[in-house]
Amino acid sequence: MAVRPLAESDALGHLQAALEPLDLASVPDSAWQCLEQRREELQDQDQEHPGRAAACEALAEVLRDSAQAWPTDEPWQWLAQPACPGALPRIRALVVVLGESVTRGESSSGLCWSAGSAYLALLAARGAERCWGSLFHPAIFRFTLSRLRRCLAVRSMPRTTSVVPSAPDLKTEPGASESSTCPMTQERAVQLLDSLIALLKVRSFFSSSREMTRLLVSELAQLLARPVSSAVGEAAASGLSLIVAGASDLEELRTAAAMVLRASLPALLMSQNSLGSMGVGPKHWELHGRRAALGLAEGLIQGRPLLLLPRYFKEEECDEKDAETTSERPVDDPLLALLQHLCVSAAERAERRQLTTEAILDLLAWAVAAERAVLAEGSASEDESVRAELAEEVLSRGQGVASRFLCFLERFLRSERSSFRVVAVELASLMLERGSLLAPALVERGRVQIDQRLLQAVLTRCYDSVATVRSHALSGLGVALKMLATYVDGQKLLSGALRGAGEDEDLHMDLPRLFKVAALDDKVQLRRAAMTLFDSAARAIHAVDPGRDLSEFFDCSVLGMLAADNSLVIRRSAINSLSVVLKLCPTPSICMLWAKSVLPLALDGEGTVVERALEAIDAAIFTPLTNALSRSQGWRASASENKDEHVLVDRDPVPQIPSVLQHLPQEGTEYLQRAVRCFSCRQQGLKLVNLTTSLASVVADFLERPILQWPQVVWPLLEELASLGTTGAVLPELVLNAWEAFDAAEQKVKSLGAKILSVLQHCAARLPALRAQSLASKLCERLAALKLPAEQAAPAMRILEGLRAEGLAPNVDAWRQSLLKSIEALFLKYSHNGQAPKFDNPDSLDAEHLEACVFLLGELALAGLDLSSTSAGVVSCLQGMAAGDTARPRLRSHAVAALGKLCLHHEALAKRSVEIFVFLLGPAEPLAVRSTALIVLSDLCVQYTALVDRFVLHLADLLRDDCELLRRQAAMVLASLLSENFIKFRGNPMYRFLYALSDPSLDVRSIVESTFERILLPRQPGLFSWIFVGTMCVLNGWSGHPNYPGAETNKQFSLEKCPKRRAQIYRFMLSLMTREQKFNVCCQLVTGFLAHFTASEEWQRLELPSSDATPGGQALSDAFVLLGCKEMRVCFSPRAAAVQEDEDAEADALEAARGVFSGVLKRVVTEKIVPIMVQLKAVMEEHHSSFLGRLRICLCEILREFGDDEIRELFGCDEHLAEEVFFDLAQQRPAPSCPISQILGSGPIRRRQSVSSAMASVAAAVEDAMAEPLLDATSGATPAGPELPKEKVQAENSSRQPGPARKRRIPGKISQTQERHPKKHRISSCESQVLPGSPDRRLRVDRHVATPQLAAERMQSTPGVGLMSAAMGLRSPEVKIER
Q1: Which of 236, 266, 1181, 1235 could crosslink 225 through cysteines, CB 3.0-4.6 Å?
Q2: Are 1360 and 405 within 8 A, CB to CB?
Q3: Which pTM does this prediction carry?
Q4: Which of the 8 DSSP states describes residue 1371?
Q5: Could you write out the DSSP letters of every residue in 1036-1054?
């Protein structure tokens, strides 16, 4: 809005009227002198001036309204004159008054704000530059700005002891301020800020005073970083933009822009004070500041294309040293330097880091868009010289903003700090996701070139040594695959990379191996990243090659393993991945894998996993089945001329069954039924009704077809739906018609008939009376004639029982009594004196009839028929058949099952027969008999717990059986009984169940592991720590220890010769222990196990084992391995937390080291553990034990976390022992005299071995010792052989000395490091050395780098690194590169 010019008299009159209440004539000359002496700083004053606030407010209003419209300089001439002879000039008197008013406190009168607004409006008045020397006072200006900051910037809160903010802090309203300023004061402060913005619009401080410019930028930047409201942040950003706009030439413009960008860094990073690192997430005022800072940066980038150009050294400015390199190296690139600082300073918290990376990508995208706008044809808004320079930089040199930043990012990805690499990987992923916005302007195939470089960089980080970096890189690789599949050039690049035949030979993605290695990793974040990679890769490969079989490309069986993962996040992700691959590639193998993995998760213990599984089941099975009827009939356009007319036509005469149901495994049917019940529990009745209608229509469509073509999976679903009460859509007559059609068919499938009868049993009561009676009579006839198979006889009996209860079959009672008598007669016919029947031909018809009779007898018992009137001969005959030596195992298994059903209703019979069932578990019995007896004992344990409790050991014996099926069934039975508390986890069954943790079968191990993780440990969290040492003795078969005699009754469950299986059990138990529980195990191993070898009394002291070949030697060796293994590690000092094998464990270790518990751990080690270890060392030295070397290694691992002074204090006067420990520790770390910086920064530090590796090394050493040539029994000489050189003999002798076990290299076996890093990502042709000088990380270079200076020169040889801006110290951060 244009300002209306005022008349000369009006302007002067308004000014005089506004100044009259201030009484400028009364201001003494000394006041001006005092003000001049304090030009640097003013202080707050408490004295009030009544009435001056209103006068200053009126003056400010007059100056704001009319100062820019003064037609002449008459007001300034009037102000330059004194108010009276001998007085100060009015301008000086006014400055004194305003200066005194500005320093007043923030009272309710608002004098300081009114005076500040008047002073800023006076500076902005037209013609103020004529008396600027008297008018502008630095102290007043500085004090006004500081008053603004104190009021409008969120004040820093004091650091509290709690890391997490309190609940009221987290619930702060978006409009509330965290400062203590009242709303009225904030409103006046905002008016003062508006006056400052108005001043910056008309006055440029940059050319006149750089010091005031820096002050302005600093104060406005603080307002920008901590605004109390979004309006304050936007005003501060506007002020900073006006400072840049006030630059007079291009040089000042570049310098001012660099200064402002540097000042906006805290707002962009949201790291302005300690609150940023303490809060769970960014505060609302931080988001306000970030949004305003991004708007400021966007305006500067799009409005100042000069910032897009880097500045280079001139040849005459180059030193001789840099003459060859500086001509190609940019040194002044403010925008790139800003991006680099954002990368280096990004917060480690995930949410803040994500906001920082998004800000970087926004800035980069705006810069690329500005390049495009400048280089666009017909654009004449920019200077031609700038356009020409930009065209040369982007088109000729190929060094646009995106390319220059990519050069830095490629080196940033190789930084030796893992946190930097995480940020770099996230940036690369985000750049790949927004690749269309970053393609250079007018560059052919610019996007694919950038994507290729980014893909190569991310792929390299997939083999990083730190798990966090690998997980982010795998997720970024998934993003890359998804985005490359969206455009043509990207699809070509992706196809070539998958085949290894692209333009870049080094760009080869081994996606199957990357996925499998990450999916089988111990860390949850890596397994989750593997899921993300698989989803994206599957979709991308399908887009590039739709006909490719994903089951042949990936090892999809890994997805099935992840579906049973301990982490619920992984289980949910596995469901999504399996659903994706099923949708893209519904092959039979994929369908079976989906059914085996997803369907069981409908019964998961976690609600979120169940919800995800039900959604997947609905999308893959229920929805296609619901739409089956609409697919068989549908509307389509008529062939007539009227295209809007539609007719109902048959699209497909037979509904298509979902591919999953066509390949559903047998066990998947029951899980699918449970899933239907889960939908019913979630009150989704309409979905079930629609599903029932669709299934009924499918059955009706298949009735006219041959029996062999009927879909069998439909009937279990109908059975479950009918049992749930959704019977309105299940027509009983339709099911009866299906049974009659099946019964009349010549070719039959027995299982299909049983399924049809199972559905009919739930809806037979709704049949018409005549059809119900006809059905009952036919079933009775068939059952009495023994013409129904066993699988059909059971549902037939239940149908008859249901019809009898409804009064539709009144003759069923008489028929059952008649059937019972005929069965009894048949038993007496084939048996003699209660003995088992003998058949000349076990497959004869008589044997089949007897099997049917035995099965019917059991069904009659389950149906509730009173069998008390049955003669004792029938029971004796049944017992004889169960325990007899008949050659027909099928008959024996039926007899066992029937006898068990009778026992469930007769306790006295159960007491007489329970020992028969236990006897039938023996290894001499057929598999069918043993399996049936196991199930019967399980049911009897539920019914009569005390009766079966004494035979639980016999059930647990089956866990070591040779038959995998029986072991699996035994594990399931024991797990079921343990879950319901019918048996207790204690005593010998406990050790036998632990033995199954190392079962060769994955299915058995999974059942046992799930039982521990989901049933036993939630009940007793400290279970493993209580039984660990006893388990170690039992697994080694050693019962010689007085505290742990459990092996005496479990010798058959010893794993003495199987160290790998023992290590598998140890590793599982340790993985589920807390740090405190692990330490308790350490104490038990020393004080409870090893202490008995050092007892003071001879009769109490245990004799040291002679060798590893004995059970006691194996147990002692395991104890030493466990005390020093990686899984048992416990940190006792903060220094140890800095040296970790994996950087992911750093936060965990630091948390434990800083806790109060660490002091307790250290004291226990000092007072209990180490003294016993020292005594044991003396005993072993006395007896020349072969375990001495392992004891020394174990002692070093325990003392590894202690400092040298602590070790000396620990051993007291025994200097010799301390020197021995120092010597052993010297093999693992630098000399004790080295400072901590050198210990952490250089020198090879021996990593702890895992349980498996350590025990494998011990087992290899034992094998080597046993394989050595034996002495001749007569002469005492070794067998003759070739003579070895002297050096070779000495080397072999030294290798056999007590000490660390040698690690054998197995030919063809890939180490863990090689597995993680493929050959092309390693330097195998040259040795490596460690360069000292870094206190917290190591820089590794190859042997061809002779000096650190040469290495530094190599680091600086790549364009894009080492950039700096000469303006206001905006320099690029130094990033050390990991070699």
Answers
A1: 266
A2: yes
A3: 0.73
A4: B
A5: TT----TT--GGGG-GGG-
